[in-house]
Model the fold of this input.
Amino acid sequence: MEAHSSTRTIFQNISSIDHRYSISEAAVFDALVPWISEEASVGACVRAEIALVVAHLKVRGQLNDSLRKNLEHATEIISPEEVYAEEEKTRHNIRALVNVIKKKVPSEVAPLVHLGATSVDILDTSLSYRMKGVTLAVVLPELKKLEVLLCNFAEKEAETPQVGRTHGQHAVPITVGFAVAEYISRLGKSILEIERLAGNLKGKLAGAVGAYNATSMIVKDPEELERIYLAELGLEPSEHSTQLVEPEYLLRLLLEFNTAFGVIANLADDLRNLQRSEIGELREGFGADQVGSSTMPQKRNPWNSEHVKSLWKAFMPRVMTFFMDQISEHQRDLSNSASQRFIADYVAGFSLAVSRMSGVIEGLGADHERLLANLRGNTGIPGGVLAEPAYILLAESGVSDAHEVIRKITLAAEKEKLSFAQALSRESDVLARIGNKMLELGLISASGEVSKAALAWFEKPEQYCGLAVKKAKTLSAKYRELMETKNV
Done:
């Protein structure tokens, strides 16, 4: 393969990440390039090889500022093009890299390049270096931004009443902030776990089978040489290595990425559904020149939420490959050599989805009038979402079959097209029991007729939202503080 000297237009690239998303999500794409591009991959391998030379010099007491400066310069001047050109001769990527590096470092240290290492001492270590770097520099900041935006939105809408939904049916009242707090809690815990797992990625300098055979011929303490080498890259040794670093360190990080991805896709689904014409409780921001349909001018599609879900569909199944890369025959085979290269695609797709969701939340609006109308006038029985407190209050008054009593009232309301309060008003004994219990609990005032006050309460379902407001505010405050105090 001849190294290309001309620049290729991005529209000749095959992956949509490298053309469509490099334009639409330029900031995220540019932040990812130093960590997961092929240039970054080659550069990290160079950095790992130079770290090994530094480690050898430290052990021998021969490292000085001039040598370190010259070695660091080598990491800046070696290009992927020349390494790829050399690989055409060697047919081996790391040996090609070594050959190029030897020509760029001072001659007196050239024999130390790759000394005692096998290819995967460099490849696995450099992958851990890059994955830790991209997680700390790009993935976590993007996740943190989204989490804080969710906290802000939940706090703003903490007291905004909304009908709760289970099985796609109206349930009991909550608030918009409470609904969003679910995702704050789920995503927040995942963010903290991602940070922990990124800090736990490991490297190695244990040789061809992991038993330190080669380095045992060079130094008295091969494990100390390994620690010095990895410290140069901000890593620690794997507890046990074959030719590979134990794969579970990286696997667990990628699985937690996928857990967070699933939370965000779930959020996207909920936001998309709440923007349906017949629901209309939330709405994504829409630009003045934005078009929703090529033929229907009135359309304002929730396309960003749908886009996030679509990215999840494209990248979530990659987890199967991550699991399959956990398996390697004996001390190593090459069955992960191609598949592992596509980790970069996954990290990019995930980061792009997080960024897109942040854009959704930044422009998200709540239609307070529609929210209240949906809550009060739910399909079937207006005010029927308050059947639960009616049943609870009636049971508390001593009626053992309270659930059945209230269920029959809801059936009558539905059949006769009455509101729940209207149907309840016809059951004077039931209403009196409920009213007295409400008076006892301080839900209604002692002044005026008890039954009338009780009926007035049942006409305003927004009053029955339990701890929704408290939970929304508490979780928003908790995770905002965690995002600010944790090193993300």
Q: What stands out?
A: The longest strand covers residues 169-175. The mean pLDDT is 93.
